[in-house]
Write a structure and sequence with these properties.
The chain has 23 helices and 21 strands. It is of the alpha/beta class. The chain has four domains: 255 residues, TIM Barrel (Alpha-Beta Barrel); 139 residues, Lyase, Ornithine Decarboxylase, Chain A, domain 1, CATH 2.40.37; 70 residues, Methane Monooxygenase Hydroxylase, Chain G, domain 1, CATH 1.20.58; 39 residues. Strands 4, 13, 14, 15, 16, 17, 18, 19, 20 and 21 form a ten-stranded mixed beta sheet that branches. α6 links the parallel β5 and β6. α5 runs parallel beside α12 and α8 packs across α9. The protein is globular. The chain binds pyridoxal-5'-phosphate. Pyridoxal-5'-phosphate binds next to loops.
């Protein structure tokens, strides 16, 4: 190997830096010496790490096709431990006299497997559940066993919901009704009397504190949920009137999800703690302070107050929360409450990885253009050609404007029949060479003109991938959320291409063209050149929170295959559960088609074709088999 090759050699360290895996991987994801992404159930301890490529071949051998959602139960467990240990540690260090009792909000990932694992493993810490609807309460009661854990009922509650919750209390569960609307109190009081159950009551308040970030609507004065201070006092008075103030045990607020700035978290805790202290002064027994969700996930690994990051660690969050609660309680001589948080995103985001293969690539390459133009070429094409010859660092903005101007003029001429298709095609090649050249020059500039902001993605390759953005990462489409995405192998090779990702829905929104970056948002993702015939796999990470049930059936791509993986302490792994994704007939029946009737009607058409002599009877058999196979097939691209 000569010196330049040696200097230029690509290493796993370079891949780590390029894809930022150490920044967002939270110690769970890293790159092996073989250049593959590995997952390890214990933070920063790779002794039991498993390569995602090994899991993919295991999944393939069992006959499951891509895309597959991999769920790592160990990472769920690990995050629950991490959260509880961090709170316990902070409480010990600060000499806090209360305890921490986390609850998992089911809405963040309602899959049975996930909720079951959270309740099973959560028993170690008395980690409970939060529900926001009757359906979620019904689900929670089927899975919860731990009577020490809290079961928090938020959301609008009808009589059925309330009765069920009251029976849960009767059965010994710590089931709290959190009043979100003033109107709820009456039926809770009435049903408690009828059923003879003393309810655990809580109140959700609106804080004046507001938080930055994407999901801030739930906090703040104008949020639709929770009571304002005047309604709160009214509630206290009604409870006093009914001699029921001794049921009021909990204060709750929820500022919104993914709060990137620790200052916002602190000021909300301080405000809520003050309200809590005042409720104690009013004579309510209290005992529980429920700070809602909001603990953010660092999706881009930048550790900043950017919307998809956070400027604090879980440990810092816990310390700040405990400290803030303590400072208010101590100054009013009030016993330290049980601190509850409803952290959903942080609990489940890490445990799921979406993996898929690349189906095809449309490369962007420089076109071959002759040095000189034909004398008879149209004037506008000559002008465009001139632009292409004169690009320099000084005039890229001007060249860009000129190129757009001449291109539009040429398109117009084409519409009016003044130039041929061949000439128009030729002009577009020149145009794209200009754009390519400008993009290269732009990289040398510190401050590029704003018009050129997206130019890299315009000249990126398109990697067509076997998944649906709408089904599997809906927040990427709906709110431009960023998730870490990277190849799962070949990480000892230089990724030579810059790409955007297109899914197979063929919808112009079915693409990903914004990627994580430490300082900014990257407009293309470095990927490896496809090798003839070899599979190339990508992973989208940290997709365990909010993505699964928000997904839709765009273009009738259904649920993906799901495989649950459990990594054993000896470094082996098991595929503990596999759920087959939707078949074509599944998704058709979701939109009210009747697969059986469709088969009958298609068979009639085939029979007509036999009668008309278009196909033979044995061809009819083959055609029917193809139709039937299509019905049974996976909705994604099958090998
Ligand atoms: C959505 C929600 C949560 C979860 O918030 P995360 O930021 O995901 O932890 C908690 N509590 C309530 C009331 C919610 O609506």
């Amino acid at each position: 190997m000569n010196k330049t090759e040696l200097l230029g050699r690509w290493t796993k360290e370079k891949s780590e830096e390029l894809y930022g895996i150490k920044n967002w991987g939270a110690g769970y994801f890293s790159i092996s010496d073989k250049g593959e992404v590995i997952v390890s159930p214990y933070k920063n301890n790779n002794t039991t790490a498993i390569s995602l490529m090994d899991i993919i071949s295991g999944v393939r051998e069992r006959g499951l096709d891509m895309p597959v959602l991999l769920r790592f139960e160990n990472l769920l467990d690990s995050q629950i431990s991490y959260l509880n240990n961090s709170f316990n540690e902070a409480m010990k260090n600060l000499n806090y006299k209360g305890v921490y009792r986390g609850v998992y909000p089911i809405k963040v990932n309602q899959q049975q497997q996930v909720v079951e694992e959270v309740t099973r493993f959560g028993q170690n810490y008395h980690h409970g559940l939060e529900v926001g609807s009757k359906a979620e309460l019904v689900a929670a009661l089927s899975l919860m066993k731990d009577k020490e854990a809290c079961l928090i009922c938020n959301g609008y509650k009808d009589e059925e919901f309330i009765d069920l919750g009251l029976y849960a209390v009767k059965m010994g569960f710590k089931c709290f009704f959190v009043i979100e609307f003033p109107g709820e109190l009456d039926i809770i009081l009435e049903r408690s009397k009828v059923l003879g159950v003393q309810p655990y009551m809580g109140i959700r308040i609106k804080l004046s504190a507001k938080a930055g970030g994407h999901w801030t609507e739930s906090g703040g004065d104008r949020s639709i949920f929770g009571l304002n201070m005047s309604q709160l006092i009214e509630m206290v008075d009604i409870l006093k009137e009914h001699n029921m103030l001794d049921c009021l045990k909990l204060l709750h607020y929820h500022l919104g999800s993914q709060i990137p700035n620790i200052q916002d978290i602190r000021s909300a805790v301080l405000e809520a703690a003050r309200v809590y202290a005042e409720l104690v002064n009013e004579g309510a027994p209290m005992g529980y302070l429920d700070l809602g969700g909001g603990l953010a996930v660092d999706y881009d690994g930048s550790n900043t107050n950017y919307a998809y990051s956070r400027n604090y660690t879980v440990e810092e969050y816990c310390t700040d929360v405990v400290e803030a609660v303590m400072s208010i309680m101590d100054s009013s001589n009030i016993p330290h409450p049980v601190i509850i948080t409803e952290s959903g995103r942080t609990t489940v985001a890490y445990h799921s990885v979406l993996v898929f293969n690349v189906l095809d690539v449309e490369k962007f390459e420089e076109y071959e253009i002759p040095d000189k133009l034909d004398e008879k070429a149209p004037e506008q094409i000559k002008n465009l050609f001139e632009v292409s010859k004169n690009i320099s660092l000084k005039n890229i903005q001007e060249c860009y404007n000129d190129a757009l101007y001449y291109r539009d003029e040429i398109r117009d001429m084409f519409k009016h029949g003044r130039i041929s298709l061949r000439d128009r095609a030729f002009s577009e090649r020149i145009f794209w060479n200009i754009i390519n050249h400008i993009a290269k020059e732009k990289q040398k500039l510190k401050h590029a003109p704003p018009e050129l902001e997206d130019i890299e993605s315009a000249i990126a390759d398109t990697y067509y991938c076997n998944f649906s953005v709408f089904q599997s990462i809906p927040d990427s489409w709906a709110i431009d959320q960023l998730f870490p995405i990277m190849p799962l192998h070949r990480l000892l090779e230089l990724p030579k291409r810059n790409a955007v990702i297109a899914d197979i829905t063929c919808d112009c929104d079915g693409k990903i063209d914004r990627f994580i970056d430490l300082h900014d948002v990257r407009k293309s993702l470095p990927l490896h050149e496809m090798k003839n015939g070899d599979d190339y796999y990508l992973g989208v990470f940290l997709v365990g929170a909010y993505q699964e049930t928000l997904g839709d059936l765009h273009n009738l791509f259904g649920d993906t295959n799901v495989v649950s993986v459990r990594i054993n302490p000896d470094g082996t792994y098991e595929l503990v559960k596999e759920i087959h994704g939707d078949s074509v007939s599944d998704v058709l029946s979701y939109v009210e088609f009747d697969p059986k009737a469709m088969l009958v009607s298609f068979r009639e058409k085939a029979e007509e074709a036999v009668r008309a002599g278009l196909i033979t009877a044995s061809e009819r058999k083959e055609i029917m088999r193809a139709y039937d196979n299509g019905m049974r097939g996976y909705t994604y691209y099958e090998r």
